Here is the input.
Amino acid sequence: MENITLKILNTKGAEVDNVEVNQAILGKEEKTGVVWQAITAYMANRRKGLAATKTRGEVSGGGKKPWKQKGTGRARVGSTRSPLWRHGGVVFGPHPRDFSYTLPQKIRDAALKTALLSKFKASKVLVLEGFELEKFSTKEAVKVFDNLKITGKKLKDDSVLLLMDKVELNLRRALRNIAFLKVNLAKDTNVFEVLNADKIVITKNALTDLTKRLKK
Here is the structure.
C-alpha cells in the first residue's frame, strides 16, 4: 500500500519539506457504516434531554373536588387538574432524560480513520511546519490563512479545522475570533469535526501525535 505524501508549508505559504503518511494506518477502504454509528452517537451525546411536562400530580391546584360525586347529572370529576381539563396535567408527556451512550473504542477509531482517509484522498489536508505568530493577534492569524489561500467571506463557520499538538493561551485568544476556524488538539479530534470541515490544517507535530494515536 502506497504512502500518502504531503507538502509541508510554512506560515508564508511556501513549501519547505515533505512528509509521508502510512496509508496502512488509515486503512484500505472507507467504512461508512462505522462513521454513521460514530456520528449518531456524537449527536446523541450532545442532546440535552431537558424537555419536560407536568403530570396531574405535579400541576399546581386541583385540590378541591369541583362538584359533588352524585346528583348533578354531570360526569364524575375528582380534580380540575385532570388531563381532560384545560390547565390539567399531561399524559405520557416528555420528561428529562439522558440520550448519551458510548461506542467501543475500535469503532470510534475506525470511524476517525475513515474520515481522515476521505480528507486525504480529496486533498483537503494542509500540513504546517508550525503555527508561530510575530504578534498574538487575530489580524496576524488571519494573514497566515491568507498565505495558505484559505480566506474569503464564502467560508462557513467552523469550515476550517486547525489541529495542533498544543495551543498556548495567547494563541487561542488570537484564533477564537476567526469565525471559519475550529481549533483542537490532534489527540482530541473526533470524526464529527473532521467531516464537518471543508479544509484541515494540521501542524507537523500534531500530525505525529495523530499518527501515534491511530496506531494504538
